[in-house]
Amino acid sequence: MKTRRLEEIFEECLSAHLEGRRGIEESLSLYPQLAQELEPLLRTGAEAARGLSHYKPSEEFQEQARQRLLAAAAARRRGR
Predict the structure, then answer these.
(1) What is the rounded distance in angstroms from the CA atom of residue 12 to the CA atom of residue 4?
(2) Buried b (16+ CB within 10 A) or exposed e, 51-61
(3) Distance between CA 72 and CA 66 in Å, rounded?
(4) Are 28 and 38 a contacting pair, CB within 8 Å?
(5) Is the pTM of the predicted complex or chain greater than 0.70?
(6) SS3 64
């Protein structure tokens, strides 16, 4: 099986959570080997999404923010 990068797994899990397809705990159970790194990222992403539910930034801003978050996740992963 091809190993997916943490950033891809994070994006997939956060999307699943925000779309109501899967909870954070369920995602963590799917990736136990990454749970320690993935959990704070997912909880932060979910909390940020809740806080922004009333605010609709531009598509450009959303993409820039997503790229920054993924870059931070990658930097954190490289630091371990």
Answers:
(1) 11
(2) eeeeeeeeeee
(3) 10
(4) yes
(5) no
(6) helix
